[in-house]
């Protein structure tokens, strides 16, 4: 599982619930997963087929979503396809039936229309799971009920032994139960994740639909248009989309429009352009809703409040799916909440009608909040939160509060005077002195309160009413689709202790609507503060790194165009952010970056490495940066610092890679701890490669006897074992002749994103791309030659010492201690500063060769040795060379000579 995550997805760690649920699925259990948008639910059905090598069936409501997912999976080297009306490749059906695909997508209609023979054939080949994505569509209690989903239970009988996996981002308790019942799921394992999307900022503003507001909006968003991330403006009507789209076009912004009245091919075209970053802004109705799989949407604006809080959560959740900071602004007008009738017309039952009303009501409440918006959202989905979030408009903008006792008294009294039979409009109109027919007809114009609230607009009064409801002074009652308001016991208590002139203080927070009106009069069209998407996406980067980030985005765009795919399918913005921070300069280091998968390394790795190297030079940035970046915190290089290659591993690697020695010869070199096995040397060298050291893989495969045939046998064995973690079961599946070394080599190459076919296919070792080591010539370096053989020894201790020019013996001791401690060794400095060497080892005699490490260790262990002793011990080296080496170590204050005896400092 772990290696599948790394190889195909380039991620090093599972997110919460992922491992646990995947294990349940692999155990054959039915699972229900309720986790936030962008939390990584797709992996639940994408990993099991790669582990079991059986097909995963995925039911998805939209063809466009399937196409996007298929495209992304193909970019990861995963065999995926979809069955549906827009599929033009006629062979997909028969390939699907014969189990060719790892992941096979289809709509519920398609799934129910496939013949039982199709299912029987595919079952024969192996189905590892049946996933129902957006599973809330199955429930009438859900906000997006689709009757085709209801029929999916007929497949339960056919696929009785296949685990069913239902996935959704929005499901209340009722909806969850409905999903389990509808799909006839058994002993279901349920995983409910947090709904909290911490990287999203939530803001709400009231507005009037008007041309001047649209102009302001266009002007505001045009400031932030660039290559870093895109934006969606959701509208509630087609008319609104057209108006905004036109204004954006007039302002020269690359915008697209998407709504249900457009033809499907047009919609498809726009969708493609948007996900390929050819459009900066998409103006859409909710027809462009579920199924947008674009991770780098930085800002979502709602021009009008959606019909339910679930829809809002889901639509705004399309933002920042890559985890980078992103913003969601919702603009509402009062008229948005008067559409209950219209929405309820779609209801199939009384319960559904009630559900629609409740959801709209929740959306309205969300808009009128004066408290933390995230807290409200989380509570709505049954999750408790710890305090205010600090990342919504109500938390970040200090709320104005004041004593509103007079206004509250007027409103509550007026409601009481109306007899509690009316909605909120009637008492407000009375307070504002209206002489409408309804008011005069009911004699309300004779009430003493008539006209006492003229100073405020009806919007202001409505906002106050919402505050009184939220604070328990007013009760809202639902009668059919109409709402009436009445006074709660708390409200009555307040009224009983007050009269028109004296009331006890009642301090309430002003909602943004109330505050706006008081500050700007009736000019309420002020926009919320939008944040620059480019700045958001560059979080954690310096100025130069941000430039590199933007340049790398362009390179990714260019590659995506060439390959006819979406930039995000190549890799996510968060991965580009890490590349800009870490600036890897070889394949092994590139593969170490979270989000870089094997396919990326082999397909685009070299192009990125070359560009990073060139651009870093231009921007004066050091490559192979190792600092801990805030946004790059998952990078494996950082995580592996503790388990870096030990000196023994480095020494083995150097002797093999640069000394040209065979594994056997390295194993035979006398050591204080005695000789080591050849297999140990091989493991050491592989470990060093995993830690980022360059390796001549072609030579490595040759010397370990790894052929393409063996590689293919090993791959089959891994598939049949279903795991890459344990070597023994894999070995047991293989012929005797295949060694553990072969298996380990294969796994390491996979881990590093190297294709055996490329490496073993090379005729000459020199043809292996990117495997040649650059050796800075300024590094102190000694070589000891005997019998015409040359063997070079890099100086771990002196290399470190030379970095920081030791000035005192104390300092040297510190460095020496470092060299003795496996954990403290600075792999990077030693790995980078490798000397040039001569690789002629033909005549090596097997005598012990003097290297700095070997000499140092020996001198340390013998505490005071003469030159003669040293030369005698290291017979593999000339006396002159040993002397040279000793004088260098002396010069570096690593050893000293006293009374002709050498000692370690
Ligand atoms: N373990 C992980 N480590 C890092 N990134 C991950 C991990 N799992 C998933 N992701 C990334 O998180 C992003 C969102 O994942 P995914 O599309 O699976 O979310 P989702 O829960 O299906 O969202 P939605 O409900 O919106 O469809 C993707 O870019 C995905 O590659």
UniProtKB/TrEMBL annotation:
Q: Which cofactor does it need?
A: Zn(2+)
Q: Which GO terms describe its molecular function?
A: 3'-5' DNA helicase activity; ATP binding; DNA binding; four-way junction helicase activity; hydrolase activity
* GO CC, any one term: chromosome
Please tell me whether the keyword ATP-binding is annotated for this protein: yes
Q: Start and end of every Helicase ATP-binding domain? A: 22-189
Where does the Helicase C-terminal domain start and stop, copy by copy? Answer: 216-364
Give me the reactions it catalyses: Couples ATP hydrolysis with the unwinding of duplex DNA by translocating in the 3'-5' direction; ATP + H2O = ADP + phosphate + H(+)
Which top-level group of life is the source organism from?
Answer: Eukaryota
Primary site of residence: nucleus
Q: Offer one example of a GO biological process linked to this entry.
A: double-strand break repair via homologous recombination
- Entry similarity comment: Belongs to the helicase family. RecQ subfamily.
This protein is called ATP-dependent DNA helicase
State the organism named in the record.
Ensete ventricosum (Abyssinian banana)
